[in-house]
Design a protein that fits this description.
This protein is mostly beta strands. The protein has a single domain (24-114), classed as Rieske Iron-sulfur Protein. The chain is built from no helices and ten strands. The chain has strands at 24-26, 35-38, 41-46, 49-54, 68-70, 73-75, 82-84, 90-92, 101-107, 110-114.
Length: 116
């Protein structure tokens, strides 16, 4: 595989997907109860079911992949807004706008995001 990395370039940070082709990720990189940043999308594993939302909080762009995931609720680490990761619904402010959500298809050990 050919890459654009030059000698001395930093490696991909551990919070990013190591599968760069499009919007894909390795299922094993998202353990149950965790999140993974894939481009500008946050992928969540809720008890073995994968879902995806925009990666930033609509309130002030906090990184949702770094927030606490409790069941299907993610809490923004910056100001505490809470969202349902399956529906995008705001559960607690200060955010007022829901999250964009995306479909996830899992084929073997690879997950694909359907971003339309």
């Amino acid at each position: 595989m050919q890459t654009n990395l030059k000698d001395g370039d930093a490696r991909i940070p551990p919070t990013k997907s190591p599968v760069p082709a499009g919007k894909q990720f390795r299922v094993n990189d998202v353990p149950s109860g965790s999140a993974l940043l894939v481009g500008d999308v946050a992928v969540f594993n809720v008890a073995g079911t994968f879902c995806a939302t925009q990666a930033t909080c609509p309130h002030q762009k906090g990184p949702l992949n770094e927030g606490m995931l409790d069941g299907s609720t993610v809490t923004c680490p910056w100001h505490g807004s809470q969202f349902n990761v399956f529906t995008g619904a705001v559960l607690r402010g200060p955010a007022k706008n829901p999250l964009r959500t995306y479909r996830v298809i899992v084929e073997g050990d690879i997950g694909r995001l359907i971003v339309e």
